[in-house]
Design brief:
eight-stranded mixed sheet, 8 strands, alpha/beta
């Protein structure tokens, strides 16, 4: 069972499940938790090998990507959460799409921040170099290099520091397990490009997310069930760079699905639809 935390709302029956990215933990949602708790029931998890779920799976030598998704489904089953709205960041978005593939109908809506949707030439090169250097260099050297490539702007230094800090806790052994899944992740992404999610999707991307924003902009023109909103003055980890805007847009989107009245104010100049 994954390590998890639940925060139950006195009145709302709506559940929101947060899925962090590779190398992270539920800690990356600290700027979302306070606001979301005001409106919904919240479930935070640490994915297999991450955070406080690390010890539970330490004996396993190989991970399968579908197992990562099933861990979340089993946790929801344990808590008797039949359906939920999913919020993911970076690689966590792929986990959410895998959950939707394995258990269609469990997601009422999907919000993907800094979404990874495709392995383009740059990402393939990063993965290949990572695999080659993994036997030579300490994993944190590789992770730091990737962090600087994905989050290069000086304006996003706090996000990059947290990105690296959380990765230190991951450890070399877990890093290698996740790196070995890169082919599975790539194959899943190919499928997800062709097939839309079973629930409405909102992409929230930072305008400085140079690696992934162009791919998402292209995808939403082909997927009828998806919308993209770009957050200004933000990089790849947009939930940390601009948390207020990320929260406003996410909560508004969820309430548009549930039919609940939205009471949040919204600062239009900082978010735009391409």
């Amino acid at each position: 069972m994954l390590y998890h935390k639940t925060f139950e709302h006195k009145k709302s029956k709506t559940w929101v499940v947060f899925i962090h990215g590779a190398g992270g933990s539920n800690v990356v949602w600290f700027k979302q938790l306070r606001e979301f708790k005001k409106h919904f029931n919240v479930l935070l998890v640490d994915l297999r090998g991450h955070g406080r779920s690390k010890k539970e799976y330490s004996k396993e030598e190989i991970y399968k990507f579908d197992e990562i998704a099933m861990d979340v489904i089993h946790t929801m089953d344990h808590l008797k959460i039949q359906k939920a709205h999913f919020v993911g960041i970076s690689l966590g978005c792929i986990v959410i799409r895998a959950i939707d593939k394995l258990a269609p109908g469990r997601a009422e809506s999907i919000i993907m921040g800094g979404a990874v949707i495709q392995f383009n030439k740059k990402i393939k090169a990063l993965v290949t170099v990572g695999k080659l250097l993994n036997s030579i260099l300490p994993y944190m050297w590789i992770y730091r290099i990737n962090a600087w490539i994905l989050i290069p702007s000086k304006k996003d230094i706090d996000s990059r520091k947290l990105f690296i800090k959380e990765a230190i806790r991951l450890g070399d052994r877990e890093f290698k397990k996740w790196l070995r899944m890169s082919n599975e992740i790539r194959d899943n992404l190919k499928e997800f490009l062709m097939k839309e999610a079973s629930a409405p999707v909102l992409y929230l991307m930072g305008d400085r997310d140079h690696m992934f924003l162009p791919m998402v902009s292209n995808l939403v023109q082909k997927h009828f069930n998806s919308n993209l909103e770009v957050i200004r003055n933000s990089g790849h980890v947009c939930n940390l760079d601009q948390p207020d805007l990320f929260n406003e847009r996410s909560i508004r989107f969820i309430k548009s699905i549930t039919g609940e009245k939205n009471t949040l104010s919204f600062s239009d100049p900082f978010v735009f639809k391409p």
